[in-house]
Each structure stands twice: as structure tokens, then as C-alpha cells.
């Protein structure tokens, strides 16, 4: 089922999410819905807060980046209760966007490499190290479960320049090709 994506301005996007347990209700259906929602919106990642759930869960399918990085071919993963344990390497800029902040893309600098522990959809524990675009996509989605948006990493001047566009998103004054839930839309 395609779920509505929570738009910029909703307080749930600013909350630090909570861990879940193995008996989380209907987890496999939730994961299927998250992948379907992400694909419908042409995203490469989707975090649970973006669909209104303040839980430490995100999904990634970085296959669209496989042309730029062959290691991303078939890179489809579920991250449950993840914890980034280290970030290292040079920071490098890359143009990022977000399904919760449509029509805005900005160059964001992130560390080249990270190590993360997480559980997969079968509750198998992993500790893995990623670099490049894989690390970047993970960092972006991880920020969501920490209550951080990519726009938080912009300079104060750039944030000021984007303020009217961000306000328009929170008021639902934009058109997107996927379902969204706007926090401040009139007539809600």
C-alpha cells in the first residue's frame, strides 16, 4: 500500500525515533508498504518518520545510483534499530533531495565512510562499513531517525534563502506526483 509521505514542517520529522522490538506488529507488511511508497515517489531511501512513525527503521534501494557506482547494483536493505558507530574520511559534497522536502535539492557535505550496526528484516544483527554513495544514502536516512533533515546542514544564509519555499511545502502549496500529508494545509 502506498502511504502518504509526511511533509516538511511536521513535528514528527524532528523527533528522535525509538527502537522497536522483534514483536513489532505487522513489520513485514510495514516494510513492503515502505518500499512501495518509496518506489512510487522515485526515492532511494525512506525512513519511518517520513510515513508518520517515530521508530528507528529505514529502507534503502540504491540501485538507481548503480550507473555511478557499480557496488550499488542490487543494494536493497532494511535497517532496524541502526546505530552509526563511526564516521571517517574526507567530507565531500553531493546534491541531495528528500521526499519530505520536494523540489529542493542542495549540495550537502558528508563523511566518506561510516560503520553501522543494525538488524535486518529477519532480525539478524550486522556491523558493516560503507563508503561513497552507499554511506551517503545511509547517513541521509539515519539523520531522519535522529530528527535531522538535510536542510539543517545548510548555511544560515542558504536556509534563509529557502525559507519561503520550505514554508510553501509545509502549507501544501506544491504539487507532487505522490501522496503527501502536509502539517499546515488549510482546510485539513
Automatic annotation (TrEMBL):
Q: Which family does it belong to?
A: Belongs to the polypeptide deformylase family.
Q: Name one GO molecular function term.
A: metal ion binding
The protein, known as: Peptide deformylase
EC numbers on record: 3.5.1.88
> So what does this one do?
Removes the formyl group from the N-terminal Met of newly synthesized proteins. Requires at least a dipeptide for an efficient rate of reaction. N-terminal L-methionine is a prerequisite for activity but the enzyme has broad specificity at other positions.
Which residues of this UniProt protein bind Fe cation?
Answer: 98, 140, 144
Identify the enzyme class. Answer: hydrolase
Tell me the GO BP annotations in alphabetical order: translation
Which residues constitute the catalytic centre?
A: 141
Explain how, and how many, cofactor molecules are bound: Binds 1 Fe(2+) ion.
Query: Which catalytic reaction applies to this protein?
Result: N-terminal N-formyl-L-methionyl-[peptide] + H2O = N-terminal L-methionyl-[peptide] + formate
Q: Which UniProt keywords apply?
A: Hydrolase, Iron, Metal-binding, Protein biosynthesis
Record's keyword annotation contains Signal: no
| Cofactors required | Fe(2+)
Originating organism: Hufsiella arboris
- Specify one Pfam family: Pep_deformylase
Amino acid at each position: 500500500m502506498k502511504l502518504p509521505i509526511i511533509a516538511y514542517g511536521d513535528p514528527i520529522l524532528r523527533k528522535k525515533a525509538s527502537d522497536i522490538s522483534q514483536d513489532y506488529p505487522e513489520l513485514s507488511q510495514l516494510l513492503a508498504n515502505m518500499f512501495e511508497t518509496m518506489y512510487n515517489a522515485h526515492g532511494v531511501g525512506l525512513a519511518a518518520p517520513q510515513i508518520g512513525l517515530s521508530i528507528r527503521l529505514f529502507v534503502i534501494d540504491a540501485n538507481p545510483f548503480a550507473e555511478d557506482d557499480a557496488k550499488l547494483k542490487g543494494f536493497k536493505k532494511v535497517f532496524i534499530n541502526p546505530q552509526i558507530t563511526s564516521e571517517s574520511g574526507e567530507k565531500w559534497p553531493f546534491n541531495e533531495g528528500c521526499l519530505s522536502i520536494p523540489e529542493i535539492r542542495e549540495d550537502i557535505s558528508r563523511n566518506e565512510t561510516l560503520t553501522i550496526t543494525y538488524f535486518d528484516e529477519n532480525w539478524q544483527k550486522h556491523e558493516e562499513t560503507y563508503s561513497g554513495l552507499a554511506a551517503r544514502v545511509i547517513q541521509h536516512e539515519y539523520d531522519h531517525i535522529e530528527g535531522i533533515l538535510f536542510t539543517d546542514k545548510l548555511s544560515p544564509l542558504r536556509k534563509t534563502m529557502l525559507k519561503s519555499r520550505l514554508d510553501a511545502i509545509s502549507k501544501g502549496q506544491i504539487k507532487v506526483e505522490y501522496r503527501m500529508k502536509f502539517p499546515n494545509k488549510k482546510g485539513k
